[in-house]
Structures are given as structure tokens and as C-alpha cells.
Amino acid sequence: MTTNNRNKDLLIGAVVGTVLGAVTALLFAPKSGKELRTDIADGVQQVSTKTQQAAESIADKTKQLAGTLNEKTQLAAQTVSRHTSEWSEKAKETALSWKNKAALSITEGTTESTENELTTQDESKVS
């Protein structure tokens, strides 16, 4: 935003300075009224043309900047989306791994306790 304000202020300053310089030069030039009016009209036309050219240039640069910004924004969004998908997949894989380990631990724990119970029952039958 600051750059846009600077460009706008610079453009306004250049136009005002050009107009003031041209008017001052014309007023101090030793010419007749008709020549002076013609020179002033020519000066105004030149300033108008330069202002239009500057405005077109700024508009073109703004369009280019907007296009570049749009492309970079889309690229950043795609990158974030891709990373989010990768992280989500890794989280799912980790959760599934922990679930499987927990289930295996529970199964092994149940098997061991069942074997211990059977061993204890067998020993009590022997005694």
C-alpha cells in the first residue's frame, strides 16, 4: 500500500511540477497573446498525453503485479494443501501403528495371562 501511495504522490508531483514550469516559462516568454495561448494549449496537451501514458504504465504494472501475486498465492495454497495432506497421512499412519501395537500388546497380555492361569490350574491339579 505504501508503494502505491508513493507512486501516486510522485505522479501528482510530476504533473503539477510540469504544469507550473510550463506556465511559468510561457508567461515570462516575450510572445503575443495568440502565440501564448497556443503555447499554453500545446503545453496542456503534452501534459495530458504524458499523464495518460503514466496512468497506462501504472495500470499495466498493477495488472502484472496482481497476476504475479495471484500466481504466488495459488502456489502457496497448493503447497500448504500438499503439506497438510502429507501430515494428515503421516498422523493416520502413526495412529494406526499405535493402535496395532496396543492391540498386539493386549493380545499378548491376554495370551500370557491365559497361559499363566492354565499353568496355575495344572499345578493345583497335580498337588
UniProtKB/TrEMBL annotation:
Record keywords: Membrane, Transmembrane, Transmembrane helix
Residue ranges, compositional bias (Polar residues): 107-121
Highest taxon in the source lineage: Bacteria
Transmembrane segments: 12-29
Region of interest called Disordered, as start-end residue ranges on this chain: 105-127
Pfam family name, one: YtxH
Gene3D superfamilies cross-referenced by the UniProt entry: Helix hairpin bin
Protein name in the entry: YtxH domain-containing protein
Organism annotation: Paenibacillus baimaensis
